[in-house]
Amino acid sequence: MALALLMKVKLLLLAVELLKKKRELGTVTAVLVTTPVIILTGQQMQELICSHQRKFLSIKPRKQKAVQMKKKNLKNRNKNKLKRKGKK
Fold first, then answer.
1. What gap in Å lies between CA 23 and CA 13, rounded to an integer?
2. Domain span at residue 18?
3. For the chain, how many structural domains are there in total?
4. Which of 21, 51, 71, 83 gives 20 to 30 Å between its CA and that of 57?
């Protein structure tokens, strides 16, 4: 019984993770969750919370993404400068 319950929870987490990835890529605008509510014991709830925290920590914060974009823009700007110099 407990094993089946854990499997359900893992499947649910997997689905949530996939939807988060799609949302980050901008392919999902709204999600309707129709999964049944599962009653968890204290230990299972703790495991669930811990695994969720690990997953949330793996998502890149906005500031880090902005820094990456800035670097990319600088790189492109330098490439464009070189192209212009080559044409003259």
1. 15
2. 2-87
3. 1
4. 71
User: How far is it, in rounded angstroms, from Cα 64 to Cα 60?
Assistant: 7
Q: Residue 15: what residue type?
A: A
Please report the DSSP string for the chain in residue order: -HHHHHHHHHHHHHHHHHHHHHHHHT--S-----PPP----HHHHHHHHHHHHHHHHHSPPHHHHHHHHHHHHHHHHHHHHHHHHHH-
Whole-model pTM over 0.70:
no
**How far is CA 79 from each of CA 68, 75, 82, rounded to the nearest angstrom?**
17, 6, 5
Q: What are phi and psi of 69, to 5 degrees?
A: -65, -40
Tens-digit pLDDT string for the chain (88 aa): 566 766 766 766 666 666 666 555 555 444 444 444 455 556 666 666 665 555 555 555 566 677 778 888 888 888 888 888 877 6
